[in-house]
Amino acid sequence: MNTGLNVRAGFQPRGVQEGDQVELSLTLAPEYNVSYSADGSATVDWEALGDGASFRIAAVVDNTAPEVTDILVSLINDTMLVTARDNQYVAAVSLYHSSGTKLLQRVGAQQEIQAGEEAQYALDLTGIQGNKFLLQVTDYAMNTATFKVEVQTGEQDELPEMIAFDLDRGSGPASIGTRKAAT
């Protein structure tokens, strides 16, 4: 018999506050430690289980999103330098296309810092083109701060020599034509 227990994603233990350290413990009993009565009810022999049947996870209650204190873009070095901090630790800094559907670049945590310490995260912009992006800074509790960033990276589209509008079309979008100069 296989048994499962689901805990909803928004589970919050009672009596804990932001910043409290907690330890989550889970003990699993293999089927050979479970006996069944005639009516089908199960009894677990918890005393027979060894230390290997349990594992513990230390955690900190964290409902606070990271903060971004500065964003610098070097078009010469093709780098976006993000300065950020979290009340615990920043897990990742990610750059997305403006729609948020395409991950363009990501850097992970700074391993040498302490909880709450500000750090710099360098995103390589080589080969990334566009002028509108979403920047996300995420901590280990999956709290995320999202920012719109507008900066031209990569080759900028060449402007046409002439733009023409058809004003006789009436309501709706106007017909736009472009022509480049002969070279």
Describe this structure as you would to a colleague.
With 183 residues, this protein is an all-beta fold. It contains no helices and 13 strands. It has strands at 21-27, 34-36, 42-44, 54-60, 67-74, 79-85, 90-97, 103-108, 119-124, 130-139, 144-153, 162-166, 175-179. A four-stranded antiparallel sheet has the order 8-7-10-11, with no helix packed on it. Strands 5-6-9 form a three-stranded antiparallel sheet, with no helix packed on it. Strand 2 and strand 3 form a beta hairpin. It is elongated and about 85 Å long. The mean pLDDT is 85.
Gyration radius, rounded: 27 Å
Query: Percent helix among the residues?
Result: under 10%
Main sheet record: 4 strands, antiparallel
Distance from first to last alpha carbon: 77 Å
Shape: elongated
Provide the residue-averaged pLDDT.
Answer: 85
Tally of DSSP helical segments: 0
- Widest beta sheet: strand line-up: 8-7-10-11
pLDDT under 50 segments (min length 5)?
A: none
Query: How are helices and strands ordered from N to C?
Result: EEEEEEEEEEEEE
Number of strands: 13
- The portion of residues forming beta strands comes to over 45%
Structural class: mainly beta
